[in-house]
Design goal:
Number of strands of chain B: 12
Largest interface: A-B, 41 and 24 residues
Number of domains of chain B: 1
Largest sheet of chain B: 5 strands, antiparallel
Strand content of chain B: 35-45%
Structural class of chain B: mainly beta
Helix content of chain B: 10-25%
Order of helices and strands of chain A: HHHHHHHHHHHHHHHHHH
CATH architecture of chain B: Sandwich
Number of strands of chain A: 0
Distance between the termini of chain B: 42 Å
Number of helices of chain B: 4
Oligomer: heterodimer
Distance between the termini of chain A: 91 Å
Strand order of the largest sheet of chain B: 1-9-6-12-2
CATH class of chain B: Mainly Beta
CATH superfamily of chain B: Galactose-binding domain-like
């Protein structure tokens, strides 16, 4: 071998060294992959527990080329959505669509974020695009349903959301949106049926628990409503809106002190939440303490 | 009498009344679909379907003695705020109703007259706002009956092109005091989870 080395300035390794080298490269690659998967998994786990800020930090700490993938961008957008930060959610969803225009997975959340921000033109454009891409996915029909709901045409929205449910019977979110539309047309029994379907498919779907609570609140069954709002809160513990609703129901049941405590907790999570402050002021007003209300 | 007629001849600048505009504004909902409709009489092919088909070219033609009745019965007590009737003198002439009475109650033998309106050559949508005894808009009732008491030029039968029934939308947010729906984006965003 030394003879060979004198002749050609090429480093020749033995078979054994080669295979050892290859194995170590493979191991490094596998380790790197495992590490990556572990990080993604941890962030996704935080998202499933609705620890939105934690999961966003987790996802953003991944290497940049991983962040630019469809899955990660989608997850970050969903995290912002569940944290009620619809502006940020919409920004990330726009990047999601730019990455892979032919995929419609989970874009129903995009349409709902646009519904919250009341961007009619963008929502209608999205709905048309999605239906053009795929008529057999619930997400497209959910977007169309949201579009009509924003225009206050609830009967049409119900039609399209029923279609969404037909094409994908295992999508809980379509049932939840259908339930919301039934509430808008004051068909409480059908709304309850839809929400229960959603929970049957996915027991951790906090929107559906919230929906049932809302129906019960409208029917003035306050203690039952509180139970369901609490179930939703168990699943999504950092939701300011849920805390707000629980506080309102507690006040309606006469537990004003508990109500104020819940509102303080909500405001500690989100100090600038206008709805919480309005409710706190209303509670003080009701307790005949107008000075504290101001 | 609370009656508004659109495009009265000679009224320049009269706002075009349109029930769908009100529906789109989100303050009212069309609830005719939740009710059972029946007529005192009709010519074959000119019945309830033509009265409720959203088409202003098809109409209901009655075929019996006056008064001609449209009965609208709801499954549960519903608050009715507006009754919209489309009548067109230019198209229907002696078939156009000239005196319409709106009655409300629990069933056929329990109806009380709530509004009587006189029409003079209407061409378009008529809005009849129902008010309860205390002059608040909206009557909570099981049944609404629209009676055509007489027609223009003393015609026997009547044409009615379209009828819509509006109920107020109760969209109060979940909060301790909810005087009305919030309008600012920040409050509306935090009003509900969807």
């Amino acid at each position: 071998q030394q003879h060979q080395q004198q002749q050609a300035p090429v480093i020749v390794l033995s078979q054994e060294e080669l295979s050892r080298h290859a194995l170590s490269i493979q191991k490094q690659a596998a380790d790197g992959l495992m590490c990556l998967l572990r990080n993604i998994g941890a962030a996704y786990r935080l998202l499933s527990r609705y620890n939105c800020q934690g999961s966003i930090d987790g996802f953003l700490s991944l290497p940049q080329h991983q962040v630019e993938t469809h899955f990660v961008l989608r997850s970050i957008a969903k995290a912002h959505f569940h944290a009620n930060d619809y502006q940020a959610s919409v920004r990330y969803f726009e990047r999601v669509v730019a990455t892979a225009p032919q995929l419609v997975q989970e874009l129903e959340f995009y349409s709902t974020a646009l519904w919250h921000l009341q961007r009619e033109v963008q929502l209608s454009a999205l709905a048309q695009e999605l239906v053009g891409i795929s008529r057999s996915k619930a997400a497209s029909w959910c977007a169309v349903g949201n579009c009509f709901s924003l225009q206050k045409e609830h009967d049409a929205a119900i039609k399209f959301l029923s279609r969404a449910v037909q094409v994908e019977p295992e999508c809980p979110y379509a049932y939840t949106l259908l339930g919301h539309e039934h509430i808008a047309t004051e068909e409480m029994d059908r709304a309850l049926g839809c929400y229960r379907n959603a929970i049957r498919i996915s027991p951790r779907h906090y929107n559906a628990w919230y929906g049932i609570g809302l129906v019960l609140y409208k029917q003035e069954k306050f203690s039952h409503a509180e139970y369901h709002f609490r179930k939703a809160l168990n699943i999504h513990p950092n939701s300011c809106i849920l805390l707000c609703h629980i506080a309102v129901v507690q006040h309606a049941l006469g537990k004003s002190n508990a109500s104020l405590q819940t509102l303080s907790k909500a405001l500690s999570l989100e100090p600038n939440n206008a709805m919480c402050r309005y409710n706190r002021a209303s509670v003080y007003l009701d307790l005949a303490q107008p000075s504290t209300a101001l | 009498m609370s009656l508004h007629a659109s495009s009265r001849s000679g009224t320049a600048g009269a706002e075009e009344l349109d029930p769908s505009k009100e529906e789109r504004a989100g303050r009212v909902r069309e609830v005719g679909g939740q009710a059972v409709w029946s007529l005192s009489s009709c010519k074959p092919g000119f019945g309830v379907q033509q009265l409720r088909d959203d088409c202003l070219d098809s109409y209901w033609q009655s075929d019996g003695p006056q008064p001609h009745l449209v009965n609208i019965q709801f499954r549960r007590k519903t608050t009715i705020q507006d009754v919209w009737i489309y009548a067109d003198y230019k198209a229907d002439e002696s078939y156009t109703p000239s005196r319409i009475s709106v009655r409300c109650g629990s069933h056929f033998n329990d109806l009380q007259e709530v509004e009587v309106v006189e029409l003079h050559e209407p061409t378009g949508w008529l809005l009849i706002t129902l008010k309860d005894l205390k002059e608040r808009p909206g009557i909570n009732t099981y049944m609404v009956q629209i009676a055509v008491l007489s027609n223009h030029q003393n015609g026997r039968d009547t044409h009615m092109r379209q009828i819509k029934i509006h109920a107020p939308v109760r969209d109060a947010p979940v909060s301790v005091y909810a005087p009305c729906a919030f309008t600012s984006l920040a409050l509306r965003r935090d009003q509900t989870i969807r």
